[in-house]
Amino acid sequence: MRLIQHIPNLLTLLNLFLGCVALVYIYYDHMLIIDGQRNIFVDMGKMHIASFLVFLAAIIDFADGAVARLLKAESAIGKQLDSLADMVTFGLVPGVIMYNLIAKSYYASAESFDYPILYFTAGFFLTLMAAYRLARFNTEETSVVFTGLPSPAMALFIASLPLVILNDVMGLNAILSNKWTLLLITLSLGYLMVSNIPMLSLKLRGLGFKENRWAYILISISSLVILSGIFIFNLTFVLIPVIIILYILLSIVKNLFEHGI
Fold it and tell me: Distance between CA atoms of 106 and 114, rounded to whole angstroms?
């Protein structure tokens, strides 16, 4: 195989590397707890850097597939390598982020140390469901129907939460610091990943509108939301979960419109 045909696999390994580094930054200056006369402040250390690394890895994950198709370098080992990299970057990393956010929600109370670590491990439900989804995807026959929320989309949603909390976007810090909110997000995204709900595929089939109309609709609405969010409402990181939710809702609308389900 020519050297150029190894480029997609090198991009996949870069995805995996970024996931490993993200894990390091999650635990860099990990969760400093300052208790000043029972006024507890919880610092998330360098978790925001881990979030940016996940964003970059998602771009690379999208690019490696496109490059493989362009170079006609798709292979069985590339498929397996992609799943293994995704398991770390878009499975383990978001699980660890959610573990820390749930722990932070407990540590923000005066009775924080009354709870065992086991309480925080609910965040790894995302990791377990991502593993199941990736295994299911690898064993399914090729189909035009794309089911379940992609693990990179889940990871982008989760990775945006520390940034929203850190910047207290729209006053969401209090809501996203509540353990019940975090558990609801965890259960919802975990279920959506392994569900059989048909989801929009973002792989364009040519450039025509008819065969790609739902993808174009999603791109158009997302672009409008992003532009108005940034330039009118001065929003940034909160737009990421908004776009993911929009993707889920539009997928449901597509199903209702085409199949009445």
Answer: 9
pLDDT band at 260 (very low <50, low <70, confident <90, very high): low
Q: What is the pTM of this model?
A: 0.90
Q: What percent of the chain has pLDDT over 70?
A: 85
Structural domain boundaries in the chain? 3-199, 200-261
Q: Which of 80, 188, 173 is nearest to 135 (CA)?
A: 80
The yes-or-no verdict on residue 89 having pLDDT over 70 is yes
CA distance 117 to 91: 20
- What's at 152, amino acid-wise? P
Q: Which residues pair with 147 in a beta bridge?
A: 198
Query: CA dihedral in degrees (40, 178, 158, 261; nearest 10)?
Result: 180
Pick the CATH number of 3-199 from 3.40.1350, 1.20.1070, 1.20.120, 2.60.120: 1.20.120
Cα 83–84–85 angle (5° rounding)? 90
